[in-house]
Known about the structure:
Layout: E1 2-5, E2 17-21, H1 29-45, E3 49-55, H2 58-62, H3 74-83, E4 88-93, H4 96-99, H5 103-112, E5 117-122, H6 136-146, E6 149-152, H7 169-177, H8 181-188, E7 192-199, H9 204-208, E8 213-217, E9 227-235, E10 238-247, E11 258-263, E12 275-285, H10 293-317
Parallel strand pairs: 1-4, 2-3, 2-5, 3-4, 5-6
Antiparallel strand pairs: 7-8, 7-12, 8-11, 9-10, 9-12, 10-11
Helix pairs in contact: 5-6, 7-8
Amino acid sequence: MQRWRGLEDIPEDWGRSVVTIGSYDGVHRGHQLIIRHAVERARELGVPSVVVTFDPHPSEVVRPGSHPPLLAAHHRRAELCAELGVDAVLILPFTTEFSRLSPADFVVKVLVDKLHAKAVVEGPNFRFGHKAAGNVEFLAEQGKTYDFDVEVVDLYVTGEAGGGEPFSSTLTRRLIAEGDVEGASEILGRPHRVEGVVVRGAQRGRDLGFPTANVETLPHTAIPADGVYAGWLHVQGEAMPAAISVGTNPQFDGTERTVEAYAIDRVGLDLYGLHVAVDFLAFVRGQARFESLDALLEQMADDVKRCRELIAAAEGRA
């Protein structure tokens, strides 16, 4: 799969293509419906498929300081798009100047002049251009002028976790912020992932017999509510069952919020400086302060036992 950053990265001899545009944060099941449709349509037409997304999130440029928590970094979005069969991902730097492009100019500069769109696939609520003035109806009118079709994919609705709302990144962020990582997984179609480099912390976990990887998360990452979770620690292609702690460590009067993962039943791991990923499977309990260190250790042992059980059950269903 090709990855481009900016219009100038698109090959000059690029031919016709099927395009879909959006932030696609998380590449959740609603996004997957749209992207799969674009891939299938491209194959029918015998042309490549292209996903167009933005960096930073448009809201950060339009309303500085309002950057939403991110469900997936750009490299992760590209990986997920590749898994869906996409031929190219174009990341457009979303600048103040770019935000001022009218919908008509956006169509010409991106879809017509550079990507030579043969078809454009979007969800029903797609908006684009200055002040989000463009919509799918306007896009369809432009398609008549510039010889591309516009196809709209209706989004499914979520199950119990979302209360029947359409699949959305906003809903997913809310569930994660509430600690409902299982509900978020229902929308994403996979566990929510947090990534970053392992850094040195206070090393209390090692002293207590539960050495953890202290993950310095990427900027704007959507981090679950404080508490203990079952999940996996991904290191250099290996997925290790893990007990994950999110919070400030109130037992030791901590103030900095951290994400720490204990690789269950693994000893001697040296992960410092490595880029790792943490997948959240299920919420185990909330953050708490205990009366004594012995009480904390007893609870940590119970947490690990519960995490081991939840992970084994999930892997048995896979």
